[in-house]
Amino acid sequence: MKAFSFTLMVGFSLCASLCCPEEDITNQTLRVENNNLISVDSNQTSFNIGDSIFIETIIQDNQTTIEDVDINLSDFTYAEIDESRAFHQLVLYKETAFESVVEIPLNENSINTTEGEVRLNNQLIEVISFYNGNSFRSKFNIQLLESGVYYLAGPQFLFNNSNGETTVNLGVYERGYVNITSRIVNSDEQGKYVFTVN
């Protein structure tokens, strides 16, 4: 009787595994490195008090993973125009007279968004780029209110000798995720974009 029960149980299990398709759950995260996504308008590095620095993000749909596989980012979202989004964070840093660097918390009066969306969370500048059918895009500016030497970089710049890279995140559970490691175009070897306000 035990042999019959065992055979019956193995038979049902085998039938269930062969006959019943598994749910198609992707739940993968692909990684991309691309340092040409985020830029400062005209690569400008010298400003006056009251000027604005313009930051633009353009993430082309076609990317190549670190495993050298070509992908379309829209395949990892629902590819809805002006609805599908990519997210990343930046921080504005300033050198102090004490030879240290501090994070500058901004308020909504110092930010103007012309494309995409920007949310402020203390010192974090949360940038949301919207899909337009070909790329994910955002553009905003920060009004510069004090003189000094500033950096734009990712949120981990001051921690654990990290560099100024930021990670662009996009995707949905059903289709998988993509994390793109990037830094601002023309940033220095530490990944920070340095500029001066006079």
Description:
There is one protein chain. The protein is mostly beta strands and 198 residues long. Helix content is 9%, strand content 46%. The protein has one helix and 16 strands. Strands 2, 3, 4, 7, 8, 9, 10, 11, 12, 13 and 16 form an eleven-stranded mixed β-sheet that branches.
Question: Which properties best describe this structure?
Answer:
single chain, 198 residues, mainly beta, Immunoglobulin-like, eleven-stranded mixed beta sheet, 1 helix
Q: What's the short story on this structure?
A:
This protein has 198 residues and is mostly beta strands. It has one helix at residues 2-19, and strands spanning 29-33, 38-40, 46-47, 52-60, 62-64, 70-72, 85-95, 101-103, 111-115, 117-121, 124-131, 135-143, 148-153, 166-172, 176-182, 193-197.
Chart the SSEs and their pairings.
Elements: H1 2-19, E1 29-33, E2 38-40, E3 46-47, E4 52-60, E5 62-64, E6 70-72, E7 85-95, E8 101-103, E9 111-115, E10 117-121, E11 124-131, E12 135-143, E13 148-153, E14 166-172, E15 176-182, E16 193-197
Parallel strand pairs: 1-15, 3-16
Antiparallel strand pairs: 2-4, 4-12, 5-6, 7-8, 7-11, 7-13, 9-12, 10-11, 11-12, 13-16, 14-15
